Amino acid sequence: MKILILGAKGMLGQELVRVFSDHEVLAWDREDCNICDFEKAREKIISTTPSLIINCAAYNNVDMAEGEGREICFKLNAEAPANLARVAKELGASFVQYSSDYVFGGTKETGYTEDDPLDPISEYGKSKAEGERLLGEIGGKIYIIRPSRIFGVKGSGEGVKESFVDLMIRLSAEKNEFDMVDSELTSPTYAPDLALRTREIVENHPPGIYHGAQDGACTWYSFAQEIFRLIDREDIKLNPVGSDFYPRPAKRPVCSVLINTKLPPARSWQEALAEYLRDC
């Protein structure tokens, strides 16, 4: 099977290239295909005739999206995926798009299932929700997978950000006390596990919406606690604070735990984190 992976140099994209390495993989990043230039992107994709298109390219600067980044945010997270889905439908190919837990407002304390109604509270969340809506209208063999707080080996592409895990480890070399937000409960996602989950979904399950995060949930505070415990940094002092301690342009969901009802249980975020820290 010929598989096109867009955003192949990102944290998730590089893992997908590895997971599908026994197939013919076209690993494209922004220098290979500008998905915001629809006509040129369509022409290039059509010429390669992939059977599966996986889009990892996205805009994820949540706060910038509240202002000057809003236009490109909606273009990358809604309009471009919709155009890619149309190309996939034209080819008869399957299409995978990654969404976000931020499509939910965070008022449901028990967490959110795949079929819960969307109620985003930020422009970033709205862009992801709009992308999901457009894909639903287009139809075809579309898989929407929602992760949250992805961590793993940093990608090599231009502008790729480090994960929260890597950020904490890097900053711990400079200081030993942090004020950490002890709210915004959600489910972290390990990039290698998400790549494997993606393959499992497209090979064994019908098109639809899936949750691809690890099992369990944590706040930023408890996430940091586990990171420093696993790297034996008992000298680090963490001070739990509320979300209002760090004023930010974009609102965040208080609880956006992704509940998986369609797939076998994922391993816990703690187990995945331990593997990452052991291997990195």
From TrEMBL:
Pfam family, any one: RmlD_sub_bind
Gene3D superfamilies: NAD(P)-binding Rossmann-like Domain, UDP-galactose 4-epimerase, domain 1
Top EC category: oxidoreductase
GO biological process: dTDP-rhamnose biosynthetic process
Domain RmlD-like substrate binding span(s) in chain numbering: 1-279
Species whose genome carries this gene: Candidatus Uhrbacteria bacterium GW2011_GWE2_45_35
This enzyme's EC code(s): 1.1.1.133
Name of the protein: dTDP-4-dehydrorhamnose reductase
GO MF, any single term: dTDP-4-dehydrorhamnose reductase activity
Functional description taken from the UniProt entry: Catalyzes the reduction of dTDP-6-deoxy-L-lyxo-4-hexulose to yield dTDP-L-rhamnose.
Family to which the UniProt record says this protein belongs: Belongs to the dTDP-4-dehydrorhamnose reductase family.
